[in-house]
Each structure stands twice: as structure tokens, then as C-alpha cells.
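Weekly modeling sync, notes
Attendees: AB, CL, MP (scribe)

Item 1: holo prediction request
CL wants a bound-state model with S-adenosylmethionine before deciding which constructs to order. AB pointed out that an apo prediction alone won't tell us much about the pocket. Agreed to run with the ligand included and paste results into these notes for async review.

Input as submitted:
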Amino acid sequence: MHSFVSVGLLAAAGHHDSSQVPKDFPWTFWPECYSNENTTEPYCVFTSQNFASGRGIFIVDTATNAYQFLQKPAFADPNALRRVNQYSNPSFEQREFPGKGRGLVANKTLHRGDQIFASTPLIIANTDVYDLVDSERLALSHRGVEQLPSTSQTLFWSLLDHFKGDPVDDRINTNAFEVYLLGGQVKHVVLPEIAMLNHDCRPNAAYFFDEDTLSHYVHATQTIYPGEEITITYINNERAREKRVANLKMNWGFECSCSSCSAHPELVSQSDDRIQQMRDIASALDDWTPTSTATPEAAELLISLYEQERLYASLGVAYKHAAETYASFGDKWNAMKFARLSAEYEVLDKGFGDVDVGAMRKMAEDPEMTWSWKKRVGFERRGVGACGHVH
Ligand SMILES: C[S@@+](CC[C@H](N)C(=O)[O-])C[C@H]1O[C@@H](n2cnc3c(N)ncnc32)[C@H](O)[C@@H]1O
């Protein structure tokens, strides 16, 4: 049985007359909700036209979750969004790229760590909403779009519809990012400005979603010169070309045309070898047993491979390995150096509250107080060879 239902937390349901919404009611309209035998709580559309100084948002989720979002500083603290949704003097312009559609190019030099933009989503949707039948799931997202303020509706309708199905669903599927919120629940968020950034397997910008401000931040991870396209990655790039191409085709529906995907097969083969070696070294550095082949030299090689692969957006991972490896052999100054570098890079990719960023900041202050300090002192140094094997 599928039903249109009212929600216990709400005083009434089933109509959309905003004039009847009481003053202290947090949403602009009465939520429309559906449930069935697969759902433990109805899924509803909760719209706030006032959110983010009138940009608006709609949330497709249970009432329990929607009210948890309301507790976040993004809703509760008027100052929380000061640095967000500022598009009056952008450091980029929109341009057409053959084979990729629209994209953004820098109009001034951007340095590593520069904020390119930060935005609140127009949509947050619980991915479990697929438990509803399609017609009801679609009714919720159509209702949400109709309820957005008109400028945000225009932004939504300007999004690419790659799959040419239901016009609302298609724009969500082509442009949504997956994020983990409310204790690790998967949500889809739609951010029209960030959705203009194309994918590159060797991107020059990184992004993260900040749960407190419900905002998506994009920063440069290397110098980007005027006229250069600003790119992010949609996937994990530490994989062979064939796997990256297949992933983009399957999950995003396009043939990747970035330079590392379209390189000569000989160069692709060299790149794939480097990626395999990076994976082997990373797993050796993650081995904390007395037979581990981890050495500071192997960690330095890992950094060099990331640089050679132009994987600057994820270089923080290699620096973290180096910081922990140096610490494990009791080399305080190198541990501090690489911990500082790791924290600087990783915050751009993982966000302000990330545990790895916090751990690296602690190590940069005092490596001797961290868990890996001198963990490998006394281990026989075996070393990892070019093939990733012990020599
Ligand atoms: C989030 S949108 C990016 C903006 C899009 N180009 C537009 O015109 O709206 C994602 C879509 O852009 C295109 N795209 C992004 N990166 C690409 C790439 N590296 N190669 C080819 N197409 C790409 C694909 O059509 C993909 O489905």
C-alpha cells in the first residue's frame, strides 16, 4: 500500500496553503509526505524559502532528519553563512568546452588554498527515498522545485539533464553529489554553481561538504592561472585509467575526455604503473607489524609519485603517510614538516572538522605525543623495492 500521509510532528498535512502556516512553523509550506510498507517513517518535502538569506532549500527526508537539519548552525546561527553564496565578484567565468559542455575558467590567478566558492545546496535528499514508488518520489522532488524561490528555480532549471528522463529527476541525477550527514547517512545534495565544474582525473581544485554550515566548499589545490579551466574530481583517481573510465561511464554516463584519460597508450601504461606502485607503497606504509617494509625512503617515493601523477588534490594523503612514517622512526622534524603539509592539503579535500586533519595538526605541534611515535624504532629496515616487494 502506498499512501500520501500526514506527519506526526506536524500539526496538519495534505495541503500547501502557506497562509495557513503558523508564524513559528520552520518551513514555508506544509510538507507533502508519502510512506509505504518499506518505510519506517514517511518521506516528505520540507521547504524553507528563507534559508541562506532567501536562496531557499528543500529537503526530501523523514521529519526526524529534517528537524535535525534545523538544529545545524546553517539554520540556527545567522552568522554561519557569512562566507557562503557570495557570487557578486567571482574569480571565474563560464565557458563552453567541446565534448564536455559548460565549465568554469579562472579569470584571475588562484593560489593553493584560495576559496573559489562555497554554496548551500538547493536540495538535500535522503537516498533511501528510493523506497517509495517512483511516482511518489518524483512528486516530492517536483513539489520541492516548485516551492523554491524563483531565482533558485532558474538556477535549478539551468542544470544539465544528461540522461533525458524526467526533467527534475534527470537534473538531480546528473548533478548531485553524495555526502554523509547526520551520523553517516548518505544524502544527495544539488549545488548549481559547483555543478558547473567538470571532472578531471588530475584536478586543480578540491571540495568538501561542511555539515555545520550545510555548505559545499571548493578551493584551489595548486596555482590556477587566468584562462585555465577549474576542475574537480568526481571519482577516486588513484586507480588505473580503465577503471576510472568505467566508473565515470557507469555512474555519470559520460566518456571521460580529460588529458590523462585520452593520453597515448604508452603514456597511459606508464601512469597505470605509477598508480599501482603508489598503491603497493601505501599498503606497505600501512603495515605496522614488525615485518613491515615501510621506510621513510618509501614514503618519499610515494610523495614523488603523487607529484609525478599530478595528483595534487590528494597529495595530503601521501604527506600523511610520510609524517607517520618519519614519526614511527623517531624523526621529529620531518614528522612535523610532513604533518604540516598534510594538514594544509587535507583540509581542502576533507573539511574543517576532519579527524585526519586534526591528527596531523596535533603531530605538527608535537609528534612525540602521537600514536605512531617511535612505533618502528628497533624494526629491521627491509625497504620496499620499485615493484613494491621486499628486497
Ligand atoms: C556536473 S555536470 C558539469 C557541467 C556540465 N559540463 C554542464 O554543461 O552543465 C556533469 C556533466 O558534465 C560533462 N562532463 C564533466 N566532466 C567531463 C569530462 N571530463 N569529460 C567529458 N564530459 C564531462 C558530462 O556530461 C557530465 O554528465
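Recorded for review: Residues 99-103, 160, 162, 174-175, 195-196, 198-200, 252-254, 256-258 surround S-adenosylmethionine (CB under 6 Å).
Action items: CL to compare against the apo run; MP to circulate these notes.
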